[in-house]
Amino acid sequence: MSFVQGGAGRLRVSDGGTGDPVLVLVHGLGSELETWRPVLDRLRVSRRAIAYDQRGHGGSDPAPEYSVDLLAEDLGRVVQALQLRKFSLVGHSFSGTVVSAYAAKHPEQVAGVVYVDAVGDASHAPAELKDYFRRQDEGMTPPRLRESYQQELGPKAKPATREAVLDSSARMDLKAFAPLRASMAAFDGLTAARAYPGPRVAIVAEGNENPVSAAQLPGARRVVIPNVSHWLMLDDPDATARAIEEATR
User: Fold this and answer.
1) Is the per-residue pLDDT at 129 higher than 90?
2) Active site includes 100?
3) Could you say which of 60, 67, 88, 93 is catalytic?
4) Looking at residue 136, which CATH number applies to its domain?
């Protein structure tokens, strides 16, 4: 565990394992690198795998500004600090937008993109849906944030998954939530996908037919994991790690 300098403070990084292709795993909104821990332990048996806390999450510093583009710039600072040349990106949930943004700007560095139950493009969602989320996110409070994550966990989340997700979301900088969701809603994932010609794989929880899912991006190969919640890396780390390994061979 170490720290690198991000665009607005320190970013906590976990780097371990050896072997190619190198993987960089990016957690979702309200999570942290420890959300990847069960998968990291499995991946590092045969390859180098890196995860980090994004600004305002986990052990990283809060920041005065939050957006998809700024988080993608932070990802670039992690890549530069660790002197990575070619690697695969793995993004969960909200951070499907972060890895898409980075891959679109640096296609020569990215060997492949893996979306783990991730957002692909929400910019074309109905205006009334965007307005609903905007109104819901305004004036967010810790109790409302906890309730939001409890609802999203759903009935398939294991008790340990539920505890981990609620704990990590309570540690995030609350000021990050609304601007990052707004930035996610404005991010044009289709344009970003067209700018990255490499392979993309969407690992999805069974039953996820969300129209903003990365599985809907052009050229995305879909892999389904059954009996898991949105946090499939915690509910079934063996299946998630195998799917990531197969997607990045």
Assistant:
1) no
2) no
3) 93
4) 3.40.50.1820
